[in-house]
Every structure is written in structure tokens, then in C-alpha cells.
Design a protein that fits this description.
The protein is of the alpha+beta class and 400 residues long. It has helices at 4-9, 13-22, 40-48, 57-63, 73-79, 90-99, 104-123, 133-138, 140-149, 157-172, 178-205, 211-217, 224-238, 240-255, 259-264, 269-279, 311-314, 349-366, and strands spanning 26-29, 34-37, 52-53, 131-132, 285-290, 294-296, 299-301, 306-310, 371-372, 394-396. The strands form three sheets. The protein has a five-stranded mixed beta sheet with strand order 1-2-8-5-3. Strands 4-10-9 form a three-stranded antiparallel beta sheet. Strands 6-7 form a two-stranded antiparallel ribbon. The longest helix has 28 residues, at 178-205. The structure holds protoporphyrin IX containing FE (HEM).
Length: 400
Amino acid sequence: MTDLYHRKMSSSPESFAHFLKSQGPVFWAEAEQIWVLTDHELAQGVLKSPDFSADRSSFFMAKISGCPFAKVSNFFGVVKKMMVTSDPPHHTARRRLGNSGITDHILDRFLPQVDAVVNELINQLPRTFSFDFVEKVALPLPNIVLADLFSIPTDKRKDFYLWSNHMTQFFGGASDNLELDAFNADSGAAHLRDYFKQLMQERREQPQDDFISHLLRSQGSLDDDEVVSQAAIMLVAGTVTTTDQICNNLHTFLQNNIWRDLVQNPGLLEKAIEEATRLDPSVNFIFRIAKKDMTLNGASIKAGQLVFVANHAVNRDDNVFTKPHEFVLNRDRNPHLSYGAGIHYCLGARLGRIQMQRLFTRLLQDFPDLSLDTSQVSLRKHQSLAFSGFENLHLTTESL
Ligand code: HEM
């Protein structure tokens, strides 16, 4: 049987969803040695159940089984205290800490800074030529936004992006050169940890209105390493996911001729973003580890086995969504799982949505005739089973 990764890479989101659904609500993927869930109710049940753990260190250990562990000890040191790899009670305290730096109140005050970044990126776009949207907009936007949220000084930003991107690459992707990726991830983690510790010292002396200062105010009995890990997860979880979701959504709008409708009725944008996020999720598998032997819809799951929620299929479950494969611009209820569910529900979902809302609003105004540039090939990314996005997305416009 073809492995899931190659099947995903050679399919559209819709045909991959059809394939997954055809395998049943729970199936064993032999090549990957994982259970896969395609049913919305079962998936939500697993994501909300205390019988499944989010501590995925063993998965990373298996991934680097060829590398001596010492090579990635810095990476592990940072990852093991992140909220996303913790179960309660640690998760509860770490999430509360991370949340203190990205509350609704903080984000409300941060909106003008998001707008400023969007404006700067859109203003430099060519008005008459075709351009690669990934390089010009989708990649820089979340990186700059997070550097702003952290008040990283201009002269440190290049390093900051590099370290966090090296960690993210190892966290999410498969790789052609595992040893090099492991080396970069480990060195990125060590640099980022040391830099955050230095920043913590500076902010203790002179607090600012930024992410680290907010975390220090709420630190309580948590140690400094836990502050570092919650800062690092914001970068690892908040950059590539947003870049990819922006591209997937814009591609979906343009491919389904939704752009014109949105130009005429921008009030529908919020629902359109959710609908596109349902149909082409950037996080297409979310996984957990079974804590004990159990039966799920007739499948015998053993303690320690990996259970993957297949968002492509779950988000198109016809028990939950009418016309599941269609783009329904005015969909009333849209309980897709693209931001997860349960206690690990995406902490940055609002910030992700804000960036998309602000960016697409500006693009609709400036580029009402935007379309896919079919004279060039726009490639889907090809280094990960769990994440989906575009390597490049060539667009063209005739707005001037
Ligand atoms: C549109 C873009 C985004 C998508 C599609 C997305 C998706 C997800 C998903 C599916 C999860 C659940 C992971 C799991 O259950 O194992 C998650 C968790 C998380 N996300 Fe996002 N995310 C996005 C943007 C962001 C941003 C902008 C940030 C922060 C700046 C962020 C921070 C986090 C954090 C900290 C977690 C872990 C929460 C926890 O473990 O309690 N995400 N995200």
C-alpha cells in the first residue's frame, strides 16, 4: 500500500479526503505504523480524552534514532517543557503562562502593529507583474508579526528568524538530511534559549509591553526554562502554520472563484476564511499517544501507539457538514478541527485569524483582479506528512 505521505503529496485535498474516508472511521496505516481517525466525533473524542497523551517526545526520539542523542539535547531541553508536549497538570500551568502574553486585551492593542506590517508588505508588491506570494508576503508576515510581539530589536531579527525556523523545520518536517536538520535544530534551540534568558534578564530590570515581560509578570512558581519553552512554542507553532494557512486559503479563494464575491462583499471574509481553513488545513494531522490499551470503534489500540486525526477527512465529514466538499461561502456552523480541539486548542488561533483578516482585506482593496498565474507552476510543499502549504504561489494582477 502506498504510504500516506506519498498519497497526500500526489492528491488534491479533496481526493486525499476521499481516500482517507474510504478506509473507514478508524484504520491502521501499515507503512507509518499509526492509527488514523477520519470521523469527526471520534477525532474530537480523542483530542478531548485524558486517555491520550500529548507528550510526543518518544516520536521525536524515534525520528532521530539514527543520531546520537547528545546531538539534540538542547532541542529536547526546550521542547519537553512546551505546553504542546505536556499533559495536565503541567500543561495547565504552562498554557496559563503562555496565554498571559497573548490575551485578547494584548491583541486588541497589537492590531495597529499587524496592520503596519501588512501595509508595508502589500505596498512593496509589484502592481503589474506576476509575483511569488510566499516569498513576498506569506513567509515574512507571521515572522515579522511575532518578532514585533516579542519586541525583538532590528539588529537581532535575522538571527531570531533563523533560530526559530531551524527549530520549526525539525519539529514539523520530514527531511532529506536528518543529521543536518537535527544539528541546526539543536543549535537553533541553544541560541534561542540563551537569547530568551538574556531578554528575560533585561525585561526584569526594565519591563516592556511585550510577550516576555507579560510572561515574567505571571511566572509564579514556574522556572525560567518553562518561560523559555512557552516563548519558543509561540514561534514554532505560530510561523509556518500561519504562512501555510494564508497560502492555502488564498489558493482556495482563487481556484473556486470566490475572490470576486469577496471583492463585492468583503463582509463575508470572516466566514470565507473559516471555510477555506476547513477545506485545506495547514495542520492536516494532529496526533496523540494512547496511554492504555483500549477499543475505539472496534479497533484495538495498544498503549504507546500513535493516533493521528486526519483533518482533511474530519473537516469533510458529512455527518457534520452539509455539502462537505463544496466551498459554502455563507456556512452557518463550521466546527472544523484545523485549530485542534480540547485543552491544546490553538492558543494563537485569534492571532492567526487576525493576520489573515487584515491581510486579505488589504489585498481585496488593492488587487480586485488577483488571479493564479497559470503560466508558472505553483508547488505544494513536500517535506511533511502533518503540514501542508505552498513552496511558492505565483499570482498575477491587472489592477493597474
Ligand atoms: C492559522 C494558523 C494556525 C493554525 C492552522 C494552527 C493550528 C494549531 C493546531 C492544530 C494546534 C493543536 C496541536 C495539538 O493539539 O497537538 C495548535 C496549537 C498551538 N498553537 Fe496554533 N495554529 C496557527 C497559528 C498559531 C499562532 C499564530 C500561534 C502563536 C503565535 C500559535 C500557537 C499555538 C500554541 C502555543 C499551541 C499549543 C497549545 C497547547 O498545547 O495548549 N498557533 N495550533
